Batch of 2 targets.
Target 1
Amino acid sequence: MAITLYELVGRDAARPFSPHCWKVRLALRHKGLDFQSATAGFTEIPGLEGGCSKIVPILRDGETLVAASFAIAEYLEETYPNRPSLFGGEGGRALSRFVESWSQRTIHPALARFAVLDIHDVLGEPDQAYFRESREKAFGTTLESFVADRADRVEPLLKSLEPLRAIVARQPFLGGDGPLFADYIVFGGFQWARVSSPFQFLPAEDPVALWFERCLALYDGEGAKVPAAA
Amino acid sequence: MAITLYELVGRDAARPFSPHCWKVRLALRHKGLDFQSATAGFTEIPGLEGGCSKIVPILRDGETLVAASFAIAEYLEETYPNRPSLFGGEGGRALSRFVESWSQRTIHPALARFAVLDIHDVLGEPDQAYFRESREKAFGTTLESFVADRADRVEPLLKSLEPLRAIVARQPFLGGDGPLFADYIVFGGFQWARVSSPFQFLPAEDPVALWFERCLALYDGEGAKVPAAA
């Protein structure tokens, strides 16, 4: 069966940047599954696959459609149980939700304050208007002012990464010697920033940066194939 | 084989308060293992079991001695594999380390600023002197000044609990429908504060408070048997 992953892009269809799509991209490679990528801008998402979802990633696997990264990971785990596990058992699946919850509430809001204007700038024109309006409404301020003090926000982010740093300083991945979906969850956030924004915030010698490099190198450099924003 | 759990207490041997000992107490109940408790004050720990460890918990299981809560959980999981799992598989074991890392760096430092003077006050005399000296050296200030502004620190703690809150608001435990060692890891911190300090900081309707109540009720109210500090 053919697998299609619908991913979010801006003007350059070769630069998918959604953190949640990156989680699934690595999950598919983890499972050793071939897939084709189909890309869409923000305003094209509601028209994908008959309007099945308001968000990407959407995965089509033969006749099956699944939306949202965690649900897709669970689908892949259940459907392809004989391939390398994304969760390492039921306990790993449950605690991956905690990693997601932490990542969503610690890393993502901070990275948004670094990258949101840069993300706007790489979008196609109809997406730019949609993105600016929806985000400025959510943030209660302009994109420009939302990122204006980003340099001052680096240190608090680096401090908030300590629970992750302490783990990846002593072992290669959150999963241990090898990565699990939990690694891809956190990787997705950093890759989102890397692909969409040239703003640098991770010191090269930070154990988190070294872990991120290990993630970028996985599966023949799947993550590294898209160059960092310049 | 007889199992002994060495736990930390103050003047009242019926009120073990170490977060790490509570993790193991619930882990033993989770596994359905009988055990006896042996108690020690801070300054008695180096003399336990021939000086095998500088920290409690220490577990003796027949001829085997294991120290430190996570190592004990791993030992129990390996030694009693046919009893309910503490990790739910290898992935769960790995990600429990992340939960521990988060709990140690988010919850514990905040709770120490609430409870450290109250902890001092429940200790026996030689322990009080050791505790004050070692902690004041570590904190760089007196115990009294370390907790002086604790009321102002409640709101930042409550905010930092959001990754946990989001999970336990939608399911009973971090482990899902039932608890895993990851739940006991976080429970230990809150139980430490509950047993040692009357300072209230969790609103009763907070999903974290409701989760904590569920943990207190586990195994015939193992955690609730020790009344809250008053």
Note: Residues 77 and 86 of chain A are 6 Å apart (CA to CA).
Target 2
Amino acid sequence: MQANELSSLLETELSGLAWSMQPGDLEQFGQDWTRFHQPDASVVFFPNDIAEVQQIIRLANRTGQVVIPSGGRTGYSAGAVATGGEWVISMVRFNAISDFNPIDQTVKVGAGVITEQLQQFAADQGLFYPVDFASSGSSHIAGNIATNAGGIRVLRYGLTRDYVLGLTVVTGSGEILHLNQGLVKNASGLDFRHLFIGSEGILGVVIEAEIKLLAQPPNQSVMLLALTSLEAIMSVFALARKSLVLSSFEFFSDRSLKRVMAHRGFDNPFDELHPFYVLLEFDENEAAAMDVFESGMESGWVNDGIIAQSLDQATQLWQYREGISESIAHYTPYKNDISVKISLVPAFMEQLEDILAAEYPDFETIWFGHIGDGNLHLNILKPADMDTAEFKAQCEQVNVHVYGLIQQFSGSISAEHGVGLIKKPFLPYSKSAEEIRLMQAVKQVFDPNGVLNRGKVVDS
Amino acid sequence: MQANELSSLLETELSGLAWSMQPGDLEQFGQDWTRFHQPDASVVFFPNDIAEVQQIIRLANRTGQVVIPSGGRTGYSAGAVATGGEWVISMVRFNAISDFNPIDQTVKVGAGVITEQLQQFAADQGLFYPVDFASSGSSHIAGNIATNAGGIRVLRYGLTRDYVLGLTVVTGSGEILHLNQGLVKNASGLDFRHLFIGSEGILGVVIEAEIKLLAQPPNQSVMLLALTSLEAIMSVFALARKSLVLSSFEFFSDRSLKRVMAHRGFDNPFDELHPFYVLLEFDENEAAAMDVFESGMESGWVNDGIIAQSLDQATQLWQYREGISESIAHYTPYKNDISVKISLVPAFMEQLEDILAAEYPDFETIWFGHIGDGNLHLNILKPADMDTAEFKAQCEQVNVHVYGLIQQFSGSISAEHGVGLIKKPFLPYSKSAEEIRLMQAVKQVFDPNGVLNRGKVVDS
């Protein structure tokens, strides 16, 4: 549809709604944190309420358009990019936090509430929203729900899924569903709430959610350990888990540390570089932490360590881990976000290292991850002089080896980023042909004309 | 199909399989713990492996038969009863516990493993499987999964859903799906594992599950409090939650207590009868428990209390709560298993009491429930001289009032028992017409010929 034709359609059919066809808006709302596609949205809508979302979706159904729900656009799988003239629905105006109930310890959040806002709201009530990750300052709650976001505390607190007690959505056919409505126990038929969580906008648009909050945890401590080898990571994890109540157990490589030091101008936290590091967050217990450190040293797994002595120092140590993504962002990294069972991590990493050495000899690879969940982030940095399309193509060739290994280990090609466009060709490494066929059929049920995020996750 | 015709079909098509057409088996496997239907199964299969389950389902597809997956048959919603010549698949031979992994803290269990066996297995490894309820000694894991079973520790540990890391199922079209395969984090498309949990056998047959175990909790204490009024229940809950780490907060009425005392020959735990009781289980903390008791007395909410001084006494106190269902079983109770948000419990109970007084003046009603989850069990006892069908019909007339109130409160007509046959007519009180339509369409995707548990949960 031509721009002027579209304008006139919208003026006729959706006259009261806010939208933009400004090039700057189309570019901004047509992309996410991946940088492999040219943004190409036709229009960005800024609806104010659920009825407006319904109107847009119904018009898209009548006119055969594709609609893309858009949150904070911090995704790494191109699940919210517009690449072929789609209509984008920005949920930015659904930013209310309401209906806090201290007895239920629940609160209602609009789709466009930013993760950090919800964390802060919980803290203001003396409660805790534990889902956290590097993009918490920009990501929207509905985006977290669409990808079942995990992050740095999954080990202890689980995923976004575990905090969603209610979900209001508009389906691809424009119908409103109020799913579960905040109940703890509800065995009245198929639980579509859980089907929508992690569905990446292919079934419906999340409008608002009822979120469970937790009591605040005890004071947390942070310890950074420098490890001697890859094998030491799981040994230290087993050791630490016995004596500490862990909230996080994060791993990164020497190359990751060097990137953060260079990007943020930080000093090396230790006297020298070590091959691997793990960052532990746990319920304050200095004696037990010292024991872990000392036992690790005695066993030859640990080279050095720092236990934060203040909140400031804890925050500083976290930056060595949380700064990694940002420090490599301008290299247009190709991101593998993979998982296997926790117990299989050592064998998997060993074989993966062999593949990387054989297949990526010329690319810089940056490792980090949430070891306690079996989730590894493997970033391949684009050489400055290489064309983006060529780089993506080369990485996708290597994927055949990496994902072949994941398939052998019954792992996931996407642990927490989602499938979107980027991982779609590789979905068969984690899902059977029958499961993919069923996904297509279920999408068809909720979105019979395929207007919602068409082409993402599965072909429709 | 006539019995001799069926025999000859099975001898031809499923010659290696074990099945029975003995009247005793047909009766036993044609019913559950509800007693409102005449069992009428044609045959009971006892498959040994997944391929045999596939064969049965494929034959059912070819011949237009209906298949009912059967677990421990402890259900209260008639989700596993055979009422019209269906084929029953008993999963009793899928009773292996295997592949325990101490690092992942996971274990594989066959569909027919009994809940108590899994609890015991976990304890033998120094770990903990927290899902527990009165029928743990007979219920099968796959039945728990089919209804997303909750029970007495949901308050702290959540539902069956929260422990299922992997699920192998055979769909209604006879396809095998391996869902999630034990991963902690997996964002690779629609998560059908969560769709199957709570689906009551209408989408597929659960073959085995990978279950997450927990570290053992601290020692638990039990306290039984006699309360002065209905309103006191929530006040005591708020009070207790502040100072104790609660695992359970269970409520029952004086009538419930009298039934258990009569049925089991127990003495009254207190000097006299009180209108309501709550049973608390919590991390051992005698001082804090005493504080709760004393504050409750001072506030006029608590009349009397007992803190268990030994494990034996704790077990004894639990029997006053866990013995209720058994003590009323031979009255063919009509069971309402309803939930609202926790904060709405007091207002809901007050209005519900008015309805009961007006509509059930002649029936004995027995209250108990998991107050900390907003889940109430309301049992109506059948007068000895009333016909079962007449009794059911009368109860269903009152349901219009009870479920109308639930609808006003955005609650659930089935908190943990499922919908099955018994609650199906009342599903519209908890689910919209569109949601029910979508359930039917999703069933159609997984079970195109409607061979699985046809007529349960939704019409197909």
Note: Chain B has 15 helices and 18 strands.
